[in-house]
Amino acid sequence: MAFIDTIEDRDIDADVRAMYDRQQAHYEFVPNYARAFCHRPHVMALWAALQNGIRREMDKRRFELVTFAAAHALKSTLCSIAHGRLLSQFIPAEDVLAIGRGETPPSLTPAEAAMVAFARKVAADATTVTGDDVRGLKRHGFSDGEIFDIAATSAARAFWSKLLDAVGVEADAAVQKLDPAFTQPLTVGRPLDFDSRAGEEAPAAQLRRHA
What we know:
Layout: H1 14-27, H2 32-36, H3 41-55, H4 60-73, H5 77-87, H6 93-100, H7 110-125, H8 131-139, H9 144-166, H10 180-183
Helix pairs in contact: 3-9, 4-5, 4-7, 4-9, 7-8, 7-9
């Protein structure tokens, strides 16, 4: 399930058990990424608090557009697929794949297209962001606070995606049930390899509640 060893369920402490119980209640199974946090459950809690703080200022469509763009730029297969699925609640799946190809589908407004380009730039190399990039967003009607939110969402995704890839978290069994026509184009980093230890089967719909 990961490059690092995880603690056997029989040996976990109360804090890890509580974290697993929250994940089980939300997803109906314990995702592989959660098991990778068994050594530091307090970090998971801090991540959840950060995510909640960022999401509070954005509507869901904007959050998913920015998160997907950042995840794709970071070459995170897990996050690109998970948030691509979430984004497909707001735009057609073929438009999600088009964004992944660097195109601007008709379902995006000009402001959203500019936002996606900015989010990609932040994730790929934030040192390349210029004042002109920010002024461009302002011309599309984004406030300074909203630009901060976009940057924060993209930057936060770098923490999550890089951490999961660094410790080798594998995709959950739920991903196997998704249409390869959707998952293969979004396999932008690590391949979708499955460990035989990851025995939990879960319906594909559960992936749509990915962190």
